[in-house]
Amino acid sequence: MRKWLTKHKSTILYTISLAILLFVLRWLELRFLVINNAFEIYAGGIAILFTALGIWLALKLSTPKVNTVVVEKEVFLPRPPEFTVNEKELEKTGLSGRELEVLQLMAEGLSNQEIAAKLYVSLSTIKTHSSKVLEKMDVRRRTQAIDKAKKLNIIP
Amino acid sequence: MRKWLTKHKSTILYTISLAILLFVLRWLELRFLVINNAFEIYAGGIAILFTALGIWLALKLSTPKVNTVVVEKEVFLPRPPEFTVNEKELEKTGLSGRELEVLQLMAEGLSNQEIAAKLYVSLSTIKTHSSKVLEKMDVRRRTQAIDKAKKLNIIP
DNA sequence: CTCAGAATCAGCCTAAAGTATGAGGGAAAA
DNA sequence: TTTTCCCTCATACTTTAGGCTGATTCTGAG
Q1: CA of A87 to C1' of D21 (A)
Q2: In B, which residues are within 8 Å of A139 by CB distance?
Q3: Is A69 helix (H, G, I), strand (E, B) or coil?
Q4: Element holding B70 (H helix, E strand)
Q5: Chain B nearest CA to A75, separation (Å)
Q6: How far apart are CA A38 and CA B150, in angstroms?
Q7: What single DSSP character describes residue B154?
Q8: Are B127 and A87 in contact (CB under 8 A)?
Q9: Rounded-to-integer distance, Cα B142 and Cα B104, Å
Q10: Which residue of chain A comes nearest to B82, CA vs CA?
């Protein structure tokens, strides 16, 4: 019942307004009936009144148009930009697991000798790996490889 | 003149509508005048008609209600270029302008020879600078210097 | 099973990087 | 003015990096 009331509020309002105005008209009629020539004025009055009512109804009850504007807000990643490996670029290079490992240690500033010691293999092995890394990454120096790998998000 | 027309378009339209409707009323009057009791029906008709006109006017000529809703969409940017030199750490190292310049080029993967060419100086000069850089940064390899400098925010 | 790729190692050679020492010129501070 | 950096260049030497060739072992895909 409540729902029905709110749902048809505008209709009820309009009906009541109409009824009241008709009543007023009836009363006015008694006053202006004597003046026959005032009929057009009377009709015009009604017209203006109800025009105003219509405008009021339209403005009051029309649902406002919602305009959604999507604003792109640039968000920079916080200080330590959580590093996630760019798998696509990593695959493109064709680096093997061991080669990537060597590349990472290179980036930390270790010499081939130190890398060899850390991975418990010979210097020759690391030289082979590092050569492969340079070849696969299409560079000529380890510093270039490091720079490129960082730019491609292959290493942190 | 043209401007005046467009500016008062709504007023003119309303006036014309009113005039036409009053004329119609006048005509209707001749038909319904015989029926005295039909006066309320007649008034109600006018009321409904002009209500409709009012609604139409309001909807057609009023600036539509627009509720602008701003939705912020977060766009994440990889590797923000917002780099600011850590002046404190830079001073601690005691690096001179030229030495810092060489360090930056080192980090881009350039060889001493290439750096020399780029700065229009001899290889010897760059070797001297690079040695000074390694000494002042307390490292033994350029890769270490690069890694350390990046971690200290001395270079991007 | 065979073949390809990955990982391991070695030797040899060149290129680049790094160390040490010295030295001249310029600019700014003491 | 003298001192102190900074930038420049050179020569000689050692170490590290990188290129090239070739070899062995192992594993997974075809």
Answers
A1: 33
A2: 109
A3: strand
A4: strand B66-77
A5: 5
A6: 93
A7: S
A8: no
A9: 11
A10: A76
